[in-house]
Amino acid sequence: MWLFYAIGSAFFAGVTSILAKCGIRKTDSTVATAVRTIVILVFSWIMVFVAGSQDQITEISGRTLLFLILSGAATGASWLCYFKALQIADINKVVPIDKSSTVLTILLALIFLGEGVSLPKAVAVVVIAAGIFLMIEKKDVEETKSGKSGWFLYAAGSAFFASLTAILGKIGITGVESNLGTAIRTCVVLVMAWLMVLVTGKQGEVKKIGRKELVFICCSGIATGASWLCYYRALQEGPASVVAPVDKLSVLVTVAFSYFVFGEKLGKKEAAGLVLLTAGTVAMALL
Questions:
Q1: Looking at the chain, which terminus has fewer C-beta neighbours within 10 angstroms, N or C?
Q2: What's residue 198's pLDDT?
Q3: CA 196 – CA 92 distance, rounded (Å)
Q4: CA distances in angstroms from 205 to 15, 64, 78, 220, 248, listed in the order given
Q5: Share of the chain above pLDDT 90, in %
Q6: Residue of 24, 12, 237, 270 whose CA lies nearest to 132
Q7: Cβ contacts of residue 8 below 8 Å, gap of 6+?
Q8: Which of 33, 57, 55 is nearest to 184 (CA)?
Q9: 270 near 138, Cβ under 8 Å?
Q10: Which is nearest to 217 in space by CA: 8, 9, 27?
Q11: For the CA atoms of 21, 27, 31, 37, what is the dihedral angle to 10 degrees?
Q12: Are residues 65 and 204 in contact, defined by beta-carbon separation less than 8 angstroms?
């Protein structure tokens, strides 16, 4: 069943990107992220009570709690890096680099979790990496403007912390019911998100969010919550080295919805990269 949860995570993550894009046309992305995290927190705790796992809070060991907190902190750091990169560079440059967390997660799972990688899986990893590379090297993306080259470091940081999220989450989620673990780590993300709003002095912009965009932001939060619940349930039952790349198939959902909702199309090179990324991920899940 963990594979179905991983696929569900990918679907909802893909939908999240579309809803989020609709919700930040006029709203600052940092403010939107903080508001969306509130929705995620409420949604995740509702799921805790629906699953009846709230009584397990007192049974969580210190080690498990520590890794859940670290996982939440890694998620918050990933978001901060991701949106900072988007702020100073083209989204077509940032997103593919962020997706490179797939390869890094597989390597970290091999090192820290002892998840073996056979020769066929190693080939699949190479295929995934090749697909990501093709998506990064887009023909229609302009060269980085002078003084803005720092975006690459932020994008790479986003991928790195996203990988840590998967590894730390895998370790932390083994000692607690997945819904409860997701709710706890979301509390950490919420604190980080609002600290970012306060540090940047954007708290006054919360009142300026339009009603229509607020609806999209809230729906994005619900989709994110659903994605996280599926993702950590999959991590709890399946290998992180496979769950992570399957989750990254969210790019397929995003590309499909982007075409029908926004009329966005991929070039031949990017499409080839997407095919390789998909093929490598499917191979990882089946091997």
A1: N
A2: 92
A3: 24
A4: 25, 37, 23, 19, 32
A5: 9
A6: 270
A7: 226, 227, 230
A8: 57
A9: yes
A10: 27
A11: -40
A12: no
Between CA 108 and CA 106 the distance in angstroms is: 6
Backbone angles phi, psi at 248, to 5 degrees: -70, -10
How much is the mean pLDDT over the chain? 80
Q: What is the pLDDT of residues 135-147, one digit of tens each?
A: 765 444 444 444 4
Terminal C-alpha separation, the chain:
16
Q: Is the pLDDT of residue 91 over 80?
A: no
Q: Tell me the HSE value of 233 on the side-chain side, using a 13 A CA sphere.
A: 21
| Structure tokens belonging to residue 215 | 């609806």
Q: What single letter denotes the amino acid at residue 30? A: T
Within 8 A by CB and 6+ apart from 45, the residues are 183
Helix axes 211-237 and 151-173, enclosed angle (nearest 10): 50
